[in-house]
Design brief:
mainly beta, six-stranded antiparallel barrel, 2 helices, PilZ_domain, PilZ domain-containing protein, cyclic-di-GMP binding
Length: 203
Amino acid sequence: MYSTQAAQNSGLVSPAQRRAFQRVAVNLQGRLMLANYEEYVCKVVDMSPGDVRFACAGCPLPNERVIAYIDHLGRVEGTVLKLVDDGFVMSINATGRKREKLAAQLTWIANKHELGLPEDRRHDRLTPRNTRTELLLEDGRRYPCRLMDLSLSGAAVDIDIRPPIGTAVQLGNMRGRIVRHFLEGVAIEFLTLQSREALTEFL
């Protein structure tokens, strides 16, 4: 779907190179931080591996550096190219390898609805070293479980019980909710995006 030959390992993309990428219309939520450290909720309107258009209440300056965390895609950063009525367009500063990954992720997102594919994980999975832990329910009950995988936005645990979807739980110091059942256990989505430091007890 994308022309990726234009991606340079330096992470910088010229206007001509950005035009070589094909933008795809998406509807992804996220949050972003401007150069003055103000944070805003945002929505991605369309995106390519070279640039992205945000709908956002924040009003950055041209060439301002922006860092964004986008559902299903994770962290992207770049500089503001132009302002539009409801937000702005930002170039994406990334290596060629990162652009290849973005291209694959955007292709997945664009095709997911048509193919009826399940939701993808928003952030890269981390391999936990400390897998034995407990799941705490709101009523105080604790259940031993095994951590199968972990990301900044959620976790999958091997556990005998199946609390209903939407049940509030706590895993370590992280609060979340049950979002999916599977054969071995449950998937948890954290209420807030975690930092790697917050996950150190498991890594």
